[in-house]
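[agent] plan:
  1. take the single chain provided in the ticket
  2. run structure prediction with default settings
  3. attach structure tokens to the ticket
  4. add a short note for the reviewer (M.T.)
[agent] executing step 1
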Amino acid sequence: MGSMFELDYEIVMKKDTKQKSFIDEIRCRNGNLTVSYGRPKAEELQL
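[agent] step 2 finished; step 3 output follows
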């Protein structure tokens, strides 16, 4: 049996980057394994 790894990356995309084509390219390099894209939750400021 093999090992299963899950990697999380936090990236900042350039303004002119097309998100769909970026995710598709990652999916191809990743052997069609799960790839998800999300935005971090905005933190609330507390006084």
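[agent] step 4 note for reviewer: The CA atoms of residues 10 and 40 lie 9 Å apart.
[agent] ticket updated
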